[in-house]
Amino acid sequence: MQSSSQLTLESSVVSRLMWRLMPFLFLLYIVAYLDRINVSFAILQMREQLHLTDRVYGRAAGMFFAGYFFFQVPSNLVLEKVGVRRWIAGLMVVWGLISCSMIFIRGPVSFYTLRFLLGAAEAGFFPGMILYLRRWFPANARARAVAWFMTANPLAGVVGSPISGALLGMHGGGLSGWQWLFLMEGLPAILLGTAVYWVLADTPANAKWLSEKQRSWLVDELESERRANAGGEKGSIWSVLASPRVWLLSLVYFGIPACMYGVTLWLPTAIRSLSGLSNFHIGVVAAFPYLVTAIAMVLVGTHSDRSGERRWHTALSGLIGALALAVAAYGRVSIVVIAGMSLGMLGAEAMVGPFWAMATARMSGVAAATSIAVINSIGNLGGYFGPYIIGFARSGDGGFRGGLLAIGAVLAVSGCLALVGGARPERSLLPARISTRPE
């Protein structure tokens, strides 16, 4: 058991990490997430101006994740060699330029191409950030840190939805509102990318903003965890690809982006079709589900850390989300459909914090970077499936029922598989001081 002085030191270090690292990482992820979902508002004008069908939009929205899939592992391996600051800075500048280039979309082919390139450029960002958090936060604070980081997803919607709706009203300089939207929301990635190198430190040993005592404790603590996990999943890239647990966790994760992006990228369209609101008011209404989701993510992640339990926090969140999507699919009143879709998104996003804490508990060395990238790249194919299946179903009957039932079923399967994927207790693989901590 830890002494009270050790607990106090641990608490001070985690608090310092939260206040020093999380705001900037949080801002980076808001910009990243906004650049991938702002198409959900742009399509409100693009559909008519460029004569795009629902199926074309669904495929283009999901094409981001095809680029994500093919470039995730190579990008994370490069990150492992050159360091977080250099690689993330470069990626942000590149994807900012691609996001701005979306103003040149003229039809399906250019739409597909630029969304694919945007996904390829962003492929290394999220797994790089998960790896970065793992290298800075001790194990029993990791789900909370990931949950706080991931709240950037819904909060990007809170901030970005009204802004995106308002930008659609901009016209001038030969550009339509949707083109101004892509241009104005792509520039922050370029600016923040240039700042990454100067703001972030690669490792805790280089963190001058920690006291000598705090830095020494954190380095020793992370090293002891690394040694304790040295018998877990490690080795070559091929051994990671051959790991049944990595593939099972990839299947668990598949349902999360399938639901997240299936709902996120169609929510503005659903609100318009069910309510007939203006673009700005659609943005205001869409912001509320994101706000509630952000609160739920933090609560679930914090409770998971305090209890030390990962599997059931992941599974129950997914099953509740799946049930909500089924209610939305058969809802006959607009508020029931929108609320059900929102709760489905909430359930999927609440899975993220405990899922990544569970998934990374037994990883070390190069295998950690590779495993995170494999799980994230395969799992994020769900981000292609979700938007596309809804667009495909709407092309058939103009409604959302078939698509919502499909992504709801996938989310339910993910919830059930989480009970299998995390069945082996993680605590026995952590240092003794963590495993003896009272529940």
CATH architecture call: Up-down Bundle
CATH class: Mainly Alpha
Radius of gyration: 21 Å
Low-confidence stretches: 425-439
Structural category: mainly alpha
Give helix and strand order, one letter per element, not per position: HHHHHHHHHHHHHHHHHHHHH
Q: Can you describe what's shown?
A:
It is a single chain. The protein has 439 residues and is mainly α. The chain has a single domain, classed as MFS general substrate transporter like domains (Growth Hormone, Chain: A, Up-down Bundle), CATH 1.20.1250.20. It has helices spanning 4-37, 39-49, 54-82, 84-101, 108-122, 125-136, 142-150, 152-167, 177-199, 212-228, 237-241, 244-264, 267-275, 279-307, 311-330, 334-350, 352-359, 365-379, 382-397, 401-421, 432-435. The protein is globular, with a radius of gyration of 21 Å. The model is unreliable at 425-439 (pLDDT under 50).
SSE order and pairing:
Blueprint: H1 4-37, H2 39-49, H3 54-82, H4 84-101, H5 108-122, H6 125-136, H7 142-150, H8 152-167, H9 177-199, H10 212-228, H11 237-241, H12 244-264, H13 267-275, H14 279-307, H15 311-330, H16 334-350, H17 352-359, H18 365-379, H19 382-397, H20 401-421, H21 432-435
Helix pairs in contact: 1-6, 1-7, 1-8, 1-9, 1-10, 2-9, 3-4, 3-5, 3-18, 3-19, 4-5, 4-6, 4-9, 6-18, 7-14, 7-17, 8-14, 12-16, 12-18, 12-19, 12-20, 13-14, 13-16, 14-16, 15-16, 15-20, 19-20
